[in-house]
Amino acid sequence: MFSKTFAVLTFLLSAVSHLSPVFSLPVEGLDASARSILARATPAAPHFVAYSDKWINGENGPPAVSDINGFNVFALSFILTSGPADQAKEWVNIGAAARSNIKAQYAAAGIKLIVSAFGATDTPTTKGANAVDTANTIAAWVKQYDLDGIDVDYEDETAMNKGDGSAETWLSSFTTQLRKELPQGQYILTHAPLAPWFSPNKFGGGGYLTVNKNVGSLIDWYNIQFYNQGTSEYTTCNGLLTTSSNTWPKTALFQIAASGVTQDKLVIGKPATTSDASNGYIAPATLATCLKDAKAKGWDAGAMVWEYPDAAAAWIKTVRSDSWPV
After folding, report:
1. pLDDT tens-digit map of 130-177
2. Among residues 5, 49, 80, 129, which is most buried (max CB within 10 A)?
3. Kind and range of the H or E element at 317?
4. Shortest CA distance to 240 belongs to which of 293, 164, 197, 192?
5. Considering the entire predicted model, what is its pTM?
């Protein structure tokens, strides 16, 4: 049934993109359900995303907002095909009261709290997980535990390298079903592909260029992993932004955009320290220069980091200093 709440929300959500930054949405007349949806609404670029998978002794849920000041999305890692693990499991274990309190604090600080799915240890296509069923289960979990959305950190390299299109088909079906359960504008839905997967003619099924063609309109942005792809890959501003190596051709930021992926969806992902990835590290001050150069060319998507607590408020303050100062 078309409720009054839904009617008001439709109007407000459609108007958000036309509002000036200083304009406040009138929420006083909305019920609790409407307020909840508006609180989850997908933020505009730039996106500054931190992942959290490490266990921190003595913690009780996500960090205080002061610890991650400068980020606007925090991703609990991971929910797997077998269920929540690591920080996602901790989110369950802290209980409803603690979750409600933390969500309120994050919302007040303008930080979206999402869960990331799969990661490097889970291979849903290779293990034969049904894409639609998996999407239904994970979407229900997102709603049950009151998160703002989901990131799809699909790293099933066996399936992608197979080259038969099975990875691309699985991701497309999975994303389509997620969006049916987690409507656009009400929930965040991002992907975190490996940068090489955007290389044209490199993968038999088309890699993420096929995924983007199939379901890119359903994906809010891409947290691209510009790391773990070779010791000299994406380690300079030129290699990151303008011209990638011959190993992974046409996978620098603006080359990916030239292949037809919407530029303002291309978030630059980097490790916090040299110990957070095998390779691909760029010092925060240098990364700040890269962001400045990209912004000067019209890019505004933002930056992602793997992972908190190695990257916290000080890290993102430096990275944003030349482009979007905190």
Report:
1. 999 999 999 999 999 999 999 999 999 999 999 999 999 999 999 999
2. 49
3. helix 313-320
4. 293
5. 0.89
